[in-house]
Write a structure and sequence with these properties.
Blueprint: H1 26-51, H2 55-71, H3 90-111, H4 115-132, H5 134-139
Helix pairs in contact: 1-2, 1-3, 2-4, 3-4
């Protein structure tokens, strides 16, 4: 019913078998994406720690830093100093944001079969869900 294509595609690079720009593998792209999600989660966790310090958050920050450093090939994440937030009412908003970021990291970690990052992401999701409450997460 259909004829095979007999000519080269107009989208093919003419006379350039190897392009000048580097290509990354799917795994490299997922590493970059996962490191970005975990670094964002780390930043939000630092904000939460400024409002409500806890040992659980301290442990979470250490583990997030380790994972981001591993995924970035030994390059530690840039950390902003914790600024004093004027309103403690931001705490619930920050926990919801951290929960969403941990969920995104979990999806990417699962797709690249990174067990350590997936477990850490799931644990952080649980911690932020408990801090806000399931009803509050479902409402937003």
């Amino acid at each position: 019913m259909y004829e095979p294509i007999r000519t080269k595609s107009v989208h093919t690079m003419a006379g350039a078998p190897s392009p000048d720009f580097p290509h990354r593998s799917r795994e490299e792209e997922l590493d970059i994406q996962l490191a970005g999600h975990l670094a964002a989660l780390l930043a939000v966790t630092d904000e939460i720690r400024a409002l409500a310090p806890s040992a659980d958050l301290d442990t979470g920050v250490e583990r997030l830093t380790e994972q981001v450093t591993r995924l970035r090939g030994g390059s530690a994440p840039v950390r902003a100093p914790a600024a004093d937030a004027p309103h403690a009412s931001r705490l619930a908003t920050l926990h919801r944001r951290a929960h969403a970021l941990a969920g995104r990291a979990l999806v990417v970690a699962a797709s690249r079969a990174d067990t350590a990052a997936a477990i850490l992401s799931a644990e952080r999701m649980d911690a932020h869900a408990q801090a806000v409450g399931p009803r509050e997460l479902a409402a937003h």
